[in-house]
Amino acid sequence: MDRYVVFGNPIAHSKSPVLHRLFAEQTGHSMQYETQLAPLEDFARCASSFFKQGHGANVTVPFKEDAYRLATRLSPRAQRAGAVNTLSKQPDGSLLGDNTDGAGLVRDLTVNAGFSLKGKRILILGAGGAVRGALEPILAEGPASVTIANRTVEKAEQLAELFSDLGPVAASGFDWLHEPVDLIINATSASLAGELPPIASSLIEPGQTLCYDMMYGKEPTPFCVWATEHGAGHVMDGLGMLAEQAAEAFYLWRGVRPDTAPALAELRRLLAL
Question: Which fold has domain 102-237?
């Protein structure tokens, strides 16, 4: 049976095995998918050992940059992201590194929520790896503008410069912004600490602006609560992005795209327990 794993540290909390089991059942594919705790200082050896027999792996925090270095070849979007979350063993034994995070986010917005990014004013909060992974797929949709806001403006400026050849990207501090936008994506880790990025509520156009938090939890995240209180047109957490990036990885490995709706419903049910 074809073997797949998700590498991380910590990893016990991962929802990936549930998702891939559901995808395999749905598509009639026979495969084994497990979590694998990788040592913080020796990801490369751990991954290389797995790939002697293994077919593919997902990679989560804190190993996405290690996976980028381990890959023999990189997809264009992984090159842009500077990080790899999906490794696939090729017929010649080489490892292809890809990044499905940004594609998962865009698919959750455009397909699941039916929200077109074309011509939209987009604000992204944060300037870490998650943002770097999302920028190329977002800019490919043809937005009117993308603003990256971060506490340390220099980090946002570096990202804006890296991606400026792909579309209109600008950098900003959190407190510089007041005009309403069409889409706000929270890619900061503030929700994990029960906090909010320090942004103005005037950024939300009541009934119109879509607010998206890359984080998710049993209860609505602080950002989602804030967005709802200020009348956002649509509020989403990151569970759909998780399901979609997993489906994209499954498609890369197995050549078939699973339907994420039943898997997402099952994840919601498990989260609520």
Answer: Rossmann fold (3.40.50)
